[in-house]
Amino acid sequence: MKITGLSYNRKLAKSLIKERNRGVLCATIFLMKEQYFTSETINDLSRQWLKAYSRPEKAGSQLFDIERAALLVLDMQGYFLNPDSHAYIPSAMAILPGLNQVAAFFRSKKRPVIATKHINTVKDAGMMGSWWSEMITDNHELSDIHPELEITQDEVFSKSQYDAFYQSELTAVLNTYGIDQLVIGGVMTHLCCETTARAAFVRGFEVFFLVDGTATYNRDYHQASLQNLAHGFAVLTTVEDLQREPRA
Fold first, then answer.
1. Are residues 63 and 174 in the same domain?
2. Do residues 45 and 164 both lie within one domain?
3. What CATH number has the domain bearing residue 217?
4. Is residue 120 part of a domain?
5. What is the pLDDT of residues 177-215, one digit of tens each?
6. Percentage of residues in the chain with pLDDT exceeding 70?
7. Which of 194, 121, 184 is nearest to 162 (CA)?
């Protein structure tokens, strides 16, 4: 088994080698991290995936209307963007410029920009506490939004689960602005972003999912989410296309 172009920890590498030597297919290969988005690759990859997975008939019937929309950027925290963090997402920095661009677009139209921080306590962690080896607490040194995301404190709220709607103020905020379309970006594509997109759909929001405004550990996770969401939950789009979508 040859491992190239991926970042992985020493313990995982030893485990893979041991399993390879025993002739066993190791399921932990799916934990591999890969920098699939860079400043050089993000546009081409996003175009390829948009062409492969989008459903033109849905995009044609669910037209984006900035006057009805809000932007939701999930969990762009140091915990996921700092290379020293065990939860580092190698592709996450590449989506920052696009997120800042689309956020500026929303603000220019005086439409809401909302960002989340994932924060847990022992009381509200639920299954997050047992599933993961560490909780992101409010006093964690990497819990803050990454400084390169152009966001203000009054645009940020905390969430405790993958689903940004769960026991949070999100629904109330969206209702206050009369929002019925939600554009989703941030991290991780296959966890908080996908879960929140599904939750938004169930709550009656028309969902637009940024192919080049979301990132996760590897392209397999990313592409799987795009396929799932495009099939039953969201219209796929890009930062560029969103700003020139035909208006309803």
1. yes
2. yes
3. 3.40.50.850
4. yes
5. 999 999 999 999 999 999 999 999 999 999 999 999 999
6. 86
7. 194
How many domains does the structure of the chain reveal? 2
Structure tokens at 177: 């602005």
In this structure, are 103 and 203 located in the same domain?
A: yes
Provide the residue type at 94 as one letter: A
10: pLDDT strictly greater than 90: no
Domain membership of residue 206 as a residue range: 33-242
Same domain, 64 and 110: yes
Confidence (pTM): 0.88
Q: What is the mean pLDDT of the chain?
A: 89
Cβ neighbours of residue 186 closer than 8 Å, sequence gap 6 or more: 72, 73, 74, 75, 76, 99, 115, 116, 192, 193, 213, 214
> Among residues 175, 14, 145, which one has the least CA distance to residue 82?
145
Give the Cα separation of 152 and 238 in Å (integer). 23
Q: Which residues of 1-39 are buried (b: 16+ CB within 10 A; e: fewer)?
A: eeeeeeebeeebeebbeebeeeeeebeebeebbbbbbee
The answer on pLDDT for 8 being more than 70 is no
Task: Write down how long the chain is.
Answer: 248
